[in-house]
Amino acid sequence: MGSSILGAITGGVIGLWQDYQDNRQSKREYNLAQEQLALQKQAAQDEEQARNKAESKSPDIEGILESNTAGGLGATSLTGGTGSRTQQSQLGGGNTLLGL
Predict the structure, then answer these.
(1) What is the pTM of this model?
(2) Within a 13 Å sphere around the CA of 28, how many CA atoms are in the beta-carbon half?
(3) What's the 3-state SS for the chain?
(4) 18, 24 in Cβ contact below 8 A?
(5) Cα separation of 52 and 46, whole Å?
(6) Are 100 and 85 in contact (CB under 8 A)?
(7) Which of 93, 94, 99, 64 shows the shortest CA–CA distance to 78?
(8) Using CA atoms, how far apart are residues 43 and 46, in angstroms rounded to an integer?
(9) In terms of Cα–Cα distance, which of 67, 72, 91 is closest to 83?
(10) Nearest one of 70, 80, 89 to 98, comparing CA atoms
């Protein structure tokens, strides 16, 4: 009977020791994964900074000009491409782009 109690205690201690070792290993793996994630984020930031420096973040002037002039006079014309209708009796008569 004494040996069965001793065996149970020994088995319990060994089980607790194994759980402790598994927990330590799990923490090591988690910390390593966190370090790798931080290194990957830093590498991505470094790459973005290098790309931005190479491109110098200049505006796309051609794209802006094209989008503004694609519809004829562009979005800044208040009266559209045909101008505004005016009465013939007014000074200047006919359509004008300024609406006068």
Answers:
(1) 0.43
(2) 6
(3) CHHHHHHHHHHHHHHHHHHHHHHHHHHHHHHHHHHHHHHHHHHHHHHHHHHHHHHCCCCCHHHHHHHHHCCCCCCCCCCCCCCECCCCCCCCCCCECCCC
(4) no
(5) 10
(6) no
(7) 99
(8) 5
(9) 72
(10) 80
Both tokens of 12, joined, read 């319990």
Q: What percent of the chain has pLDDT over 90?
A: 32
Phi-psi region at 92: left, alpha or beta (left = phi > 0; alpha = psi -120 to 50): left
18-56 pLDDT, tens digit each: 999 999 999 999 999 999 999 999 999 999 988 888 877
Looking up tokens 């009977």 gives: 1
